[in-house]
């Protein structure tokens, strides 16, 4: 553990923020640091350019001749972080508090990918590595991996394997979980226009349309009485979900108090369908509403334009095209004639279904159950790791995803952290998976 933390501290110190071009040098430095880690351990490692930030590639052969090869994916880029945001200490100087390690990227994804790198290198050194290993560790995951699909297509022969494996998530109620798929994602901006300009509220208030009011009335119609996203012609009911999915999700323990603590909310009511609602059904979250004067004090003007940003998470029963088409139809049919609208679509990814009925997935599930002393469960994931679908489509092999982080890790947020106990269990878990029988 001490040696692992020493290496992790060095890894965290590299400010590999891919979303900010000012840190390009640090991103490059981080890729070279990873390459050196493999080379210093006696293995070839290549930095592959031409697909955005350098992709680190390395191969580690099994200790004894064997045909099975596992391709392990991870990413070394991180989200921005600054101590002024509320971190206890410098987020790029790994520190320990209350049996946790804190630092940007400690869970997403430096800590998790390093667990597998570290243990595989140790096993190879001891002559106990069970599988042939290929690593690809990219530096553009936090910017959406825009060039990774082309990289995989161009390097299919190099990346040939029996399974793809990665850890980029969390346990659920202390249970390790293997993802059976991911909801799709689509972002868009909706503009509602009721006037070519803002107008004096004293002269016109109550007499002319207000784009903010028109917008809130429209948005309220997107949800049913239970707050579930609901559009005409969009089947988003629980009743028609495949029974296997329901069985897997209802098997996961739900604790309202834990959810409140992790999210900082007051749950509107206890709901045994929480995991179905938050991981499988299509949802639409309004992430931003901008209208009228935003400065200090009051301008007392009626806004003529309101801008709304919406994030859709799309069930595998639907497609991006279907949901966005029905949303456009909904807006058109529910706006008053005196209001105009624009829809500006941004990035999107289709839902992904992963095959979990395979030997490697069962093997991982059994080991996880033993190490964590909690049954490893199958879970459909509400977020998305687009690369999983790309691997499945191009390499045509099973993709196994299992997170090692704690639920309150706060990845992407202030004080991102990794429980020391779960780091230790992660190391034991990784060692057991790749250790010679």
Number of strands: 18
Query: Could you give the order of strands across the largest sheet?
Result: 1-2-6-3-7-17
> What is the approximate shape?
globular
The number of distinct structural domains comes to: 2
User: β content, as a range?
Assistant: 15-25%
Distance between the termini: 23 Å
* The level-1 CATH class of the largest domain: Alpha Beta
- The amount of helix comes to 25-40%
Number of helices: 13
User: Are there runs of 5+ residues with pLDDT below 50, and where?
Assistant: none
- The name of the CATH architecture of the largest domain is 3-Layer(aba) Sandwich
Write the CATH homologous superfamily of the largest domain: Zn peptidases
Tell me the structural class. Answer: alpha+beta
- The average pLDDT value, as a whole number, equals 94
Explain what you see.
The protein is built from 13 helices and 18 strands. The protein has 437 residues and is α+β, with helices and mostly antiparallel strands. It has 2 domains: 2-182 and 351-434, Aminopeptidase, CATH 3.40.630.10; 184-251 and 273-349, Alpha-Beta Plaits (2-Layer Sandwich), CATH 3.30.70. The strands form 5 sheets. Strands 1-2-6-3-7-17 form a 6-stranded mixed sheet, with helices on both faces. Helix 3 crosses helix 13, helix 4 (148-154) runs parallel beside helix 12 (386-395) and helix 11 packs antiparallel against helix 13. The mean pLDDT is 94.
Describe the secondary-structure layout.
Elements: H1 2-13, H2 24-40, E1 45-48, E2 55-60, E3 69-75, E4 95-97, E5 100-102, H3 110-125, E6 132-138, H4 148-154, E7 163-166, E8 177-182, E9 184-193, E10 199-200, H5 201-204, H6 211-220, H7 243-250, H8 256-263, H9 274-279, E11 283-291, E12 301-302, E13 305-314, H10 320-334, E14 340-349, E15 352-353, H11 359-372, E16 377-381, H12 386-395, E17 399-401, E18 417-419, H13 420-434
Parallel strand pairs: 3-6, 3-7, 7-17, 8-16
Antiparallel strand pairs: 1-2, 2-6, 4-5, 5-18, 8-15, 9-13, 9-14, 10-12, 11-13
Helix pairs in contact: 1-3, 3-13, 4-12, 11-13
């Amino acid at each position: 553990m001490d040696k692992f933390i020493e290496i992790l501290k060095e890894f965290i110190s590299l400010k590999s923020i891919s979303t900010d071009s000012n840190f390009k040098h640090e991103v490059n430095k981080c890729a070279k640091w990873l390459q050196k880690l493999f080379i210093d351990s006696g293995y070839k490692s290549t930095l592959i350019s031409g697909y955005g930030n350098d992709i680190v590639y390395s191969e580690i052969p099994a200790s004894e001749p064997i045909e099975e090869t596992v391709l392990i994916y991870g990413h070394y880029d991180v989200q921005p972080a600054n101590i002024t945001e509320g971190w206890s200490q410098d987020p790029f100087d790994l520190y320990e508090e209350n049996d946790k390690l804190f630092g940007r990227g400690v869970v997403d994804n430096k800590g998790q990918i390093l667990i597998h790198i570290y243990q595989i290198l140790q096993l190879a050194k001891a002559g106990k590595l069970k599988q042939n290993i290929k690593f690809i560790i990219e530096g553009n995951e936090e910017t959406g991996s825009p060039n990774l699909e082309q990289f995989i297509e161009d390097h299919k022969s190099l990346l040939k394997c029996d399974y793809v494996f990665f850890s980029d998530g969390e346990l659920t109620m202390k249970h390790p979980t293997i993802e059976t798929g991911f909801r799709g994602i689509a972002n868009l901006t909706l503009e509602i226009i009721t006037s070519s300009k803002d107008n004096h509220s004293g002269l016109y208030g109550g007499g002319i349309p207000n784009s903010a009011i028109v917008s809130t009335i429209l948005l309220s119609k997107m949800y049913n009485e239970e707050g579930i996203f609901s559009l005409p012609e969009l089947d988003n009911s629980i009743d028609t979900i495949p029974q296997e999915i329901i069985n897997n999700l209802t098997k996961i323990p739900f604790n309202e108090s834990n959810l409140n603590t992790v999210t900082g909310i007051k749950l509107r009511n206890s709901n045994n369908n929480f995991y179905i609602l938050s991981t499988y059904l299509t949802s639409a979250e309004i992430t931003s509403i901008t209208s009228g004067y935003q400065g200090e004090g009051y301008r007392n003007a009626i806004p003529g334009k309101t801008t709304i940003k919406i994030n859709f998470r799309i069930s595998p029963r639907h497609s991006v095209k279907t949901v966005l088409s029905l949303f456009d139809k909904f807006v058109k049919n529910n706006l008053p004639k005196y209001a105009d609208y624009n829809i500006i679509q941004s990035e999107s990814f289709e839902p992904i279904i992963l095959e979990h009925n395979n030997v490697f997935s069962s093997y991982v599930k059994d080991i996880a159950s033993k190490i964590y002393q909690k049954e490893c469960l199958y879970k459909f994931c509400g977020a998305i790791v687009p690369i999983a679908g790309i691997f499945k489509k191009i390499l045509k092999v099973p993709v196994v995803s299992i997170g090692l982080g704690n639920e309150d890790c706060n990845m992407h947020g202030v004080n991102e952290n990794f429980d020391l106990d779960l780091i230790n269990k992660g190391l034991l878990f990784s060692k057991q998976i790749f250790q010679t029988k």
